[in-house]
Design a protein that fits this description.
The structure is a single chain. With 438 residues, the chain is of the alpha+beta class. It has twelve helices and 15 strands. The protein has an eleven-stranded mixed beta sheet with strand order 2-5-6-8-15-9-14-13-12-11-10, sandwiched between helices. Strands 1-3-4-7 form a four-stranded antiparallel beta sheet, with helices on both faces. About 3% of the residues have low confidence.
């Protein structure tokens, strides 16, 4: 057994769901690290849960307001029950739960102890290497995130009948307290909304900036209306790409997960696995996961099948909230010109326009998205590093990295396809699904 596994075992043994971390301040008593009473004047308590089985589905979803799909009980529970987040992949559920004096759940943060940085999409490998060169263990660490999902969303989930500021403060302080008490290297909030990242700033977390590409629905009537906002060169290119798909005798159909049969889900899974077989990586999602989310939250899953000569040749998988479409997985059995753009981007844009969704987040990376109308947009993560010296080093690193990221995000705007006189209201703002701010 490795040293990291030994340490993780000690941590999970010591911090059971019935234990309450002391959140009366940080280990040095510094208020900038989130001073807050863990009992909240004796009315509430903090617990750590090692499985969502310890929480009722309706209680958890009352916090998330069933808005953002990736913090819904159905999504997170399916990952756990089908061993997608499991020790084999370096994930150990470690949810922070805030309960009232009647033991009712009033706030929570989906947390995980990690023994690697796989599936996070906020890359801290250099931090880990530097930390371990100093003779200390970077793993296990604590993160709060939607596993394997680089999509902005709420990470601090609060019941709408309770004080938002008070509950979020308690969760942020508890995360630091757990990190200190269990001698973890740090605690990391991945892809929070900008509003929640602001709260994390006030609690002494270090903010890191990323950049993704997001399409914004400027009240378009149809795809041609969207193209009308673009310059002639980019407009012509997008029309040509869509036409090439049609000319190859490819038909695309859009379905919701709730309408798919077992055979359809087998096709989805086959395309998902094909992506890893053709490239590299470990396919952490499995048949059980897809079958379960199809059954429990299929109304919020959008599937695009591409068919050639009566045979399905490609598939894209998207999730949706009340105002946002999220592109997540793609796979194909045969290469076709422009099919990836059609199935993963243009079909999503069509869907957003038809269903009046405000935003389309097609997934991490991919600067080719910009020319197709996806706006370079800041993303955030927030970090607490327990070691004072290393926290200062990370703060120095971020002070240098942030202006570089800001300039890059701004410079990439020049590759957008829109006309120079486009309306000023084409801009990206955070989705509010699940924030439940009072």
């Amino acid at each position: 057994m490795s040293d990291t596994t030994d340490k993780l075992s000690d941590t999970t043994d010591k911090q059971s769901s019935s234990q309450q971390p002391d959140t009366t301040g940080d280990r040095d008593g510094n208020p900038e690290h989130g001073q807050s009473n863990g009992q909240l004047n004796g009315q509430f308590k903090i617990e750590v849960g090692s499985s969502l089985d310890e929480v009722k589905r309706e209680d958890w979803n009352a916090l998330a307001n069933a808005g953002n799909p990736f913090v819904r009980y159905e999504f997170l529970s399916a990952l756990e029950s089908n061993q997608c987040v499991a020790p084999e992949y370096g994930w150990h559920p470690y949810h922070i739960l805030l309960k009232d004096d009647a033991n009712r759940l009033i706030a929570a943060a989906p947390g995980y102890l990690k023994t690697n940085s796989y599936g996070e999409f906020v890359f801290d490998f250099q931090w880990a290497e530097a930390y371990e060169r100093s003779g200390a263990d970077y793993y296990p660490k604590l993160i709060c995130a939607a596993p394997f999902t680089p999509a902005t969303g709420p990470r601090l989930l609060v019941h709408p009948d309770h004080d938002y500021q008070q509950c979020t403060s308690a969760l942020l302080s508890a995360a630091i307290a757990v990190t200190d008490q269990q001698n973890l290297s740090g605690m990391h909030w991945l892809f929070p909304t900008s509003e929640q990242a602001d709260l994390m700033d006030k609690h002494g977390y270090l903010r890191r900036m990323g950049c993704q590409y997001i399409w914004v629905n400027n009240h378009y009537q149809d795809f041609e209306d969207f193209l009308a906002s673009c310059n002639s060169k980019k407009r012509k290119n997008m029309r040509r790409e869509r036409k090439r798909v049609t000319e190859q005798n490819i038909t695309l159909t859009v379905h919701h997960g709730k309408d798919l049969q077992d055979k359809d889900w087998r096709d989805v899974i086959g395309f998902y696995l094909d992506t890893f077989n053709r490239k590299w990586g470990t396919p952490t999602l499995n048949t059980g996961f897809f079958s379960e989310v199809g059954r429990t939250m299929g109304e919020d899953i959008v599937i695009v099948f591409a068919t050639h000569d009566d045979t399905r040749v490609a598939c894209s998988v998207m999730f949706k909230s009340g105002d946002t479409l999220y592109g997540r997985y793609w796979g194909c059995h045969k290469d076709f010109h422009s099919l990836h753009f059609e199935a993963c981007y243009y079909q999503g844009i069509d869907y957003c326009i038809e269903h009046n969704l405000k935003r389309f987040e097609p997934g991490a990376q991919g600067e080719h998205k910009i020319a197709r109308g996806f706006v370079p947009t800041p993303t955030w993560s927030s970090h607490y590093i327990r070691d004072d010296a290393f926290r200062a080093a990370v703060a120095h690193f971020l002070k240098q990295e942030t202006p570089i990221m800001e300039k890059r995000c701004e410079a990439l705007q020049s590759f957008l396809p829109f006309k120079q006189d486009r309306p000023e209201d084409i801009k990206v703002t955070d989705t509010k699904d699940g924030n439940n701010k009072n």
